Amino acid sequence: MRNRERAVTLVQDDIGIGRLLANLHAKFGKDFTNYRVSCLQRRLALRMAVLKVTTLDEYLACLSANPEEIEQLLDTVTIHVTDFFRDADVYEALEMQILPELVEHKTHSPSRTIRIWSAGCSTGEEAYSIAITVLEYLHAHEAPLVLEVYGTDISKEACATAREGVYPERKVNRVPARLRQKYFEPESSGYRVAADTRRRVRFSVHDLFSAVPFSSLDIVLCRNVLIHFDHAVRNGVLARFHESLGDRGLLILGKSEAVTGTALDLFDLVDPRTKMYRKRALRDSSRRE
């Protein structure tokens, strides 16, 4: 039996997985209990196969001897799959359907700042993509507004990469040439996001299961993250997104995700194709349309 298959069997069969999770929380302050069990088992098995350990107790010993392994496990569990302008129709919908109304509203309001949160931003491509999309719109319409984009992820390494803003040529080459020339600077290792764009995007480590770090947001993007969580946990995260959004703020999920359960009372579906939802005021939450 190959190492990975053997590790999967061991993780599934070993009744000590609950004790392992308790140890991870007690020793490292990392709570993995919110993740779907099947997802967690597969990711644990991957790390055990890499380290060539055969029991969960041996894996815990590896963690104790090498504290950096907890970050490796965290990165494996959360899976950093992202790209610039991933799912182009989402950015097209933002430009054509959302930004005209939002910019018009902000132009005539006391707060002339557009605030956006990319939650679970991984290495930053999504946060920079949304920043470029909004900046292009503001420049084209000569809108005198300020843009603030916040990118958060549970991984310290991912956030460090995002702050650096340097990406391999193969990734940036997928960006339309006009935008690549305007918003990126060539470097020996690839491309760096231009300084004027980087200064508008702030990255920080944040666990989605903790208190929301922002308020009065206009847009929250959390794409292809909620699928890793159980339904009850998912609804708790959605409730926190509702709390962080301003009046009629927009929530954008991944295409394989949806607002369900009790969270249905918090959001109205705007576009089923791109999974865009509008915040519903709490006083209206009892009347589902």
3D architecture notes:
By secondary structure, the chain is an alpha/beta fold. The chain has two domains: 3-78; 88-284, 3-Layer(aba) Sandwich (Rossmann fold), CATH 3.40.50. 46% of the residues lie in helices and 19% in strands. It has twelve helices and ten strands. The protein has helices at 3-13, 17-28, 37-51, 56-65, 69-78, 88-107, 125-140, 156-164, 169-172, 177-183, 195-198, 231-244, and strands at 113-119, 146-153, 166-167, 184-187, 190-193, 201-205, 217-222, 245-253, 267-271, 276-279. A seven-stranded mixed sheet has the order 6-2-1-7-8-10-9. A three-stranded antiparallel sheet has the order 3-5-4. α3 (37-51) crosses α5.
Oligomer: single chain
- The helicity comes to 40-55%
Strand order of the largest sheet: 6-2-1-7-8-10-9
Q: CATH topology of the largest domain, what is it called?
A: Rossmann fold
H/E element sequence: HHHHHHEHEHEHHEEHEEHEEE
Strand content bin: 15-25%
The CATH class assignment of the largest domain is: Alpha Beta
What's the main sheet like? 7 strands, mixed
Overall mean pLDDT stands at 85
Low-confidence stretches: 3-15, 285-289
Assign the CATH superfamily of the largest domain: Vaccinia Virus protein VP39
In DSSP terms (H or I, runs of 4 or more residues), the helix count works out at 12
Q: Examine the secondary-structure arrangement and name the CATH architecture of the largest domain.
A: 3-Layer(aba) Sandwich
Shape descriptor = globular
Q: Quickly give the structural class.
A: alpha/beta
How far apart the termini lie comes to 54 Å
Radius of gyration: 21 Å
